[in-house]
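Handoff note, outgoing to incoming analyst
You'll be picking up this chain. Sequence as last confirmed:
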Amino acid sequence: MTVAPDQLFPGAPQDNYSAQPAHLRLAIEEIARDGWTLLRDQLSPEECRAMRAAMPAIYAAEVEELGGEAAMAKIADEGVSRSPFLRDDHFVTAIRLPDVLRVCRYFLGAVVQMNLQRVVINDPGSVRGTGVWHRDHSYQSFTTSKPVSLTALAMLDGSTVDNGAPSVLSGSHRFENFPSFEYARSKAAQVLCDIGDVLLIDSALYHRTEVNPGAQSRHTVVTIYTVPMIRQNVNYPRMLGGRWADDPELAQLMGYSTALPESDLEYRRTKLGQGRRVAQDRSVQPVPRKG
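Most recent structure output, in case you need it:
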């Protein structure tokens, strides 16, 4: 049976950015060329206030679960809340921001998976693990022709020189190796944002959080989106136990449709239940039969 090419991968990334919304075209090209872009006014002031207000209780619960601040310090995870959306639905808003998802689907395709969400609390004078130059996937010592992962940093307090705004190395997502520190010092740029803005980057871009010299903490909601071939940071489908499984957008983002099957038989039964065919490579054309 011959299958039309557009039926093989109907959700393949859009190559022509002119088909995208006008207000996102420059952002898309900036990510492709520079590795980052700034999306303005993605969260309302009220949404930012709600998430900031929820953080003390959420973080305190996580610290208590692990055994105290000393335990957090031992694993260098102070000031980091992991998967806050599991404890407070306000953080789901930061996962499904329409403009962020449009850009993610442009680069990653129709099936976009949330790899993780966390809140980084940049306390005055603190030195966090995110303060070193890094990419957002450990062990990534290679580059790709297109992004396989995007990181959205939603600024609940804005970011300024006075509260440790993050720095980026434009174009570093294109090179396997980190440049010399002389080059990094020369080319690093701090990204200044208003409350509710989102700094959206190719996860392979080298970036870091600067030390906060101010008097107030800075809160950033970090959400990473990937193609499904990259495993999620934790097993969200199992942790959620069916929650949001009936919401088509959230179910996909949370990984319900891409969860690792326990066996080949389960894989096939899942495909059968969904009425889906096993993926075929668009680059492989059917070979015509002779005779």
